[in-house]
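pinging the channel bc i need a second pair of eyes. not urgent but kinda urgent?? the chain im working w is below, pasted from the shared doc
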Amino acid sequence: MSGCGCSFSAAEDIKEDVKYTDELADQFAKEVGVDPRPNETLVEIDERGAFIRQPNAFIQPFGDEEGDLKAEAGRYGIYWATGCNWSNRPVIVRDLLGLQDVISDTRVTHSGETNKYGHAFGDQPGFKDPKTGAYFLSEFYKRANPDFKGRATTPTLVDIKEKKAVNNDYHRLTNYIEVQFRPFQPKDAPDLYPKKFRKEIDEFNDWLFPHVNNGHYRMAFCQSPEAYDEAYEDFYESLEKLDKRLETNRFLFGDYITDSDVRAYVTLVRWDVSYYHNIGPVKKPIRDYKNIWGYLRELYQIPAFRHGSDPQVLALEGPKKKLGEVLFRGYNERILAKVDFEKLWADDGERRKLSKTPDEVFLRHPEGETYEEYAEPISKTIWNSPEWEDRNPKNGTLSVDASINPLKGLL
């Protein structure tokens, strides 16, 4: 019996065709003791009306030091959401590195009709995670830290055996998978995070975060014209720099795909089909950036990049109403639904000319390389600082302008 006096069946008896209502979500939340999801537009806005994203709650690193998390096959699962650029990153990297049988993945959905309790398992029998029996992603957070009060976010790496969150640090999670999970990868797996160049990759990734990856959210969640204009100009200036960089570089750091390309792709692939809904006037669609557009189309041909970041799925997912039931339907439903995405996103092969190895897009680990030779502690990032001022986008600076590849000819 719920607090509103409505009677519900046990979760095990709920049929798959039962609608996941807010009343059911309330029942489940009361059962497991989770709170409503905090609203970022209320609690993550500074005095200027700018959106300052919360720091990640679980940033314990993977590594070989005492107290570090340890890589282990079959122990961890990535919990992620299709629409979330952050949470697609570790899934793409996992797939590129051949770790599908080592790290599982589970897609989350909204909870109830209004997503009152955040990420849940609305498409699963009984609305429960089949691996752990959880109703909500936040259960893993509460189990790891009973005092946790923030938003449970995707991606979250969950210890399936202990049913608790262990890491939601999207700033560095892909790097842990690339380095600390190296013993579980094929010997000739792609090297997305070359040890020799990690300083340059880390610095660039920490620039990408505020200016590009978080650019959409800075526009979508801010609460003042001043904050919006600042984020708007910042984002489009950054795109111009990336487009210039890609004019003479096949990928962001040269001939081979790196961790940075995964991070850029998951944001830019969403812009024309999804993100534009929330940010107001679009200065320029991604397709009008010649070099970025060709770059994205080439990455799109790689199956791992499509996993969770297929633009057609991003554009058209969600409930649809029949023609005639509503007077106005959105552009995606009216027009994009009829577009041939395979033709639109076809790669013309032109960018191959920028590479000295046109038939190979990945740097490979050298034969005989040991884990000890490859592994080292992953750097920390200012974006996980508990201080709001540290997380101000103005701190996202580079020693070399973003339009210039500092590793030109080296990678």
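so The mean pLDDT is 91. and Residues 243 and 288 are 10 Å apart (CA to CA). — does that match what u expected or am i reading it wrong
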